[in-house]
């Protein structure tokens, strides 16, 4: 039985990202997967990695719980909007504070290389845009996709990462959104 963690990075609980998370969860429940969630907006933590890696910043209880969930999961589902070709600030702060050396990767002594700690996990990124997905890909080069997939998830060992890009959301009609909610529910049923 697959263990799925749904991580929502949108700061607004009334957003389309939350509807997408619910659709994925509904589908995953249908498949009898074990499901846990992290709604980053509900966590109590300082998103600023104040000292970088020079000095340790103690993790708040919510971040310690998040780390337990991240380790538990086989499949990580990240749901968020793309803002300024990146992720929302609260999600970036979450990544900075949670995916630390010794947890998500291990630094090698006297080396610039590190060892990944999330080997064997898979991921699905579900992100929204206010522009067509093709435009984001061909004009901008998918910068947030590269940052999250390659610079973050691949770096910590999650090699199999699928991406679903939904856009444009701004000015979209209800029918368009409903179509996407059904597609995302289907992905949840397939645990992909």
Explain this structure.
The chain is α/β, with parallel strands linked by helices. The protein has a single domain (3-189), classed as Rossmann fold (3-Layer(aba) Sandwich), CATH 3.40.50.360. Helix content is 38%, strand content 20%. It contains six helices and seven strands, in the order E-H-E-H-E-H-E-E-E-H-H-E-H. The protein has helices spanning 16-30, 61-72, 89-98, 133-140, 143-154, 174-189; strands at residues 3-8, 34-39, 75-81, 105-107, 114-116, 122-128, 160-166. The strands form two sheets. A five-stranded parallel beta sheet has the order 2-1-3-6-7, sandwiched between helices. The radius of gyration is 17 Å and the shape is globular. The protein starts with a strand and ends with a helix.
By CATH's scheme, which homologous superfamily applies?
A: Flavodoxin domain
Number of strands: 7
Instruction: Count the domains.
Output: 1
Strand order of the largest sheet: 2-1-3-6-7
Low-confidence stretches: none
Q: How much helical structure, as a percent, in the residues?
A: 25-40%
Largest sheet, strands/sense/barrel: 5 strands, parallel
Q: Remind me, CATH topology?
A: Rossmann fold
The helix tally amounts to 6
What is the 3D shape?
globular
CATH class: Alpha Beta
Terminal Cα separation, in Å? 13 Å
Any idea what the CATH architecture is? 3-Layer(aba) Sandwich
List the secondary-structure elements in sequence, H or E. Answer: EHEHEHEEEHHEH
Rg, rounded, reads 17 Å
Offer a few descriptive terms:
single chain; 192 residues; alpha/beta; Rossmann fold; 5-stranded parallel sheet; two-stranded antiparallel ribbon; 6 helices; globular
